[in-house]
Amino acid sequence: METEAAVGGSAEAALAGSGAEAAEPLVPRETAREGEGAVESATAALPSPDPENSGNCADGLWELPVEHALRRPQCSRCSRPQKVCLCPFLPVHPLNISTNLYIIQHPAEENKVLRTVPLLAACLPQDKVKVKIGRRFSEERDPELSAICRNPGTLILYPGAEAINLEELISNSPNHLSTIIIIDGTWSQAKDIFYKNSLFRLPRQVQLKTSVSSQYVIRTQPTNRCLSTLECAAVALAILEKNDHIQETLLRPLQALCSFQLQHGAQIRLSKEHLLKNGLYPKPMPKNKRKLRKMELLMNSVKI
Ligand SMILES: [Zn+2]
């Protein structure tokens, strides 16, 4: 939620469930253009095929692969436009991990400009990361995913009522935990995916209790402790692999991405929690009493 949802399970989870803040993108929407303009359709400027002019020198232009030639070249490793490739910030070799990571990605995340999952995947061995895109998954259509969900060594990062703190689980669990599933989407998308797919309620639910503040400052997070999918994966893998170096390495490209965006005019998006606490929240307070109460609790940092 953005997995961001998976952190804490207190204020964030309550917010996600309230409906009041559910509209806040968990892995919020991008606010910055990437310092590069959008790709424009080259074909629009071309004359359309006209059979009557087939003898003229201008015709045949539409047959040229113009659009392909103008498409912004993309780096094959980090999936970023080549001009803003983040590969110098990725580890030279993929990190050596034993945990398998499954990212369940809401289809809307796939097309966002500022995506963190390709950066995450670029840091890890290919056979350790699987990204499955969709809203609905079933035993029949996804036998592999079903087997994963039924495996007692599989965890899902989701701050539901049954979620336990991942760190505590690791220290108390004699079993080998082989796989972790993370849902990539906004809060409401993640909640929808979790509740509408019974498969995802089979694995043990875990959450991250961390004091880490999101470094993904260019998208608004509901609270400072809501983490992007990449940050969640970084923290979770560091715990599962008992190796803090993993977290540092995975966060490096995100820091570079944020710093690049800020240099190119993106604004730091402070979390709603920060804005409320400092009297900077730009919107009128809600009239709905339940929502207002939640806002007050958030301002006072009371667990809700
Ligand atoms: Zn690259």
From TrEMBL:
Keywords associated with the record: S-adenosyl-L-methionine, Transferase, tRNA processing
MF GO annotations? tRNA-uridine aminocarboxypropyltransferase activity
Q: Which domain of life is it from?
A: Eukaryota
Is this entry keyworded Transferase?
yes
Instruction: Identify the InterPro entries for this entry.
Output: DTW, DTWD2/TAPT
Q: Name one GO biological process term.
A: tRNA modification
**Which major enzyme category is it?**
transferase
The annotated region (Disordered) lies at: 1-58
Its Enzyme Commission number? 2.5.1.25
Low complexity composition bias: which ranges?
A: 1-24
Q: What's the catalysed reaction? A: a uridine in tRNA + S-adenosyl-L-methionine = a 3-[(3S)-3-amino-3-carboxypropyl]uridine in tRNA + S-methyl-5'-thioadenosine + H(+)
A Pfam family assignment: DTW
DTW domain ranges (all copies): 71-266
UniProt family annotation: Belongs to the TDD superfamily. DTWD2 family.
How is this protein named in the record? tRNA-uridine aminocarboxypropyltransferase
Q: Give the encoding gene's name.
A: DTWD2
